[in-house]
Amino acid sequence: MKNPVLQTFPLSTPWQTLDPFLFSVYHLDHFPKGNGEMGPDESLLKGRNLGSDFNPNEKWRMYHGQTIPGFPSHPHCGFETITIVNKGFCDHSDSLGAAGRFGLGDVQWMTAGRGVQHSEMFPLLKDDEENTLELFQIWLNLPKAGKYVDPHFKMMWNEDIPIIEEENAKIKVVAGSYKNVAPIDPAPDSWAANSENEVAVWNIHVEAGSEYVLPKASSSEVNRVLYFYDGDEIHIGDKKINPNFGIVLDPTQDINIKIDSEIGHFMLLQGKPIGEPVAKYGPFVMNTQAEIQKVMEEYRLTQFGGWPWPHPDHVHDNDKGRFALYPDGTLVEK
């Protein structure tokens, strides 16, 4: 039998991805207790480079937030974001008029399409204890035919997302069927909306001192990467792999993973490649540089509909629960 591990690589910020994915980041911040205004009850004056605050040696980072952690309003075009918040909360606001607070396992799927602005802020709602944030954001490309679709905002609540409990493992099925379990439908214009593209996003947790078999894909044409982001060493075949490594897998084989002395935490990203040219400039992803220039000019002229919120780092009321306000005015509260 051929080696199921095709390649390994150390995880950096952002994680290296393969077509149809463009980008993936993992944030784990042990924010301090809040200051009553959803910011940290600690000084930002000591050693923080706001705007470039990605130092992995820090216990927590403000990223681009000046008073509340997070990413104030910024544009996206030509791809999709899948945001998984396992711990803590994210406050979303966008140029469509959509908004929400989600966390505790919720997932937001946003198709940027022809262009949207949004902000992603991380309010520190607890003033008497630490505010931990664990978040993944995955950028999934759109094919040329989908680059100019209307933006779309979708919430996937934790209570509705399939979570498979096997003997030694728990698998959260964000996208792509796992064995016979189907996920919630993705955004309608997504590359993941066609099951033949076999897009999968699975967050997998495997018990310490056990074994887990990752089922093979249905197609040999998919790219398949397993991100080992937390735990102790594991073994796949005769290969020992340390945490904080990505593992490119042979999609035609079941993968037997032996877990050592700590729980193994993994993110699987899989999908059939789109196979088209990719032109990127920051948050704009098209097929050619000429298209990038056109989109940038449109953003300068229209701001993708403008910003309807009072602040670029807009957050919701401190006592607000989980909710989603959709562009058509529909309000869902959890």
From TrEMBL:
InterPro entries, alphabetized: Pirin (IPR012093), Pirin_C_dom (IPR008778), Pirin_N_dom (IPR003829), RmlC-like_jellyroll (IPR014710), RmlC_Cupin_sf (IPR011051)
Superkingdom of source: Bacteria
Pirin N-terminal domain span: 62-140
Domain Pirin C-terminal: start-end pairs: 202-305
Coiled coil segments of this chain: none
Family assignment from sequence similarity: Belongs to the pirin family.
Protein name as it appears in the record: Pirin family protein
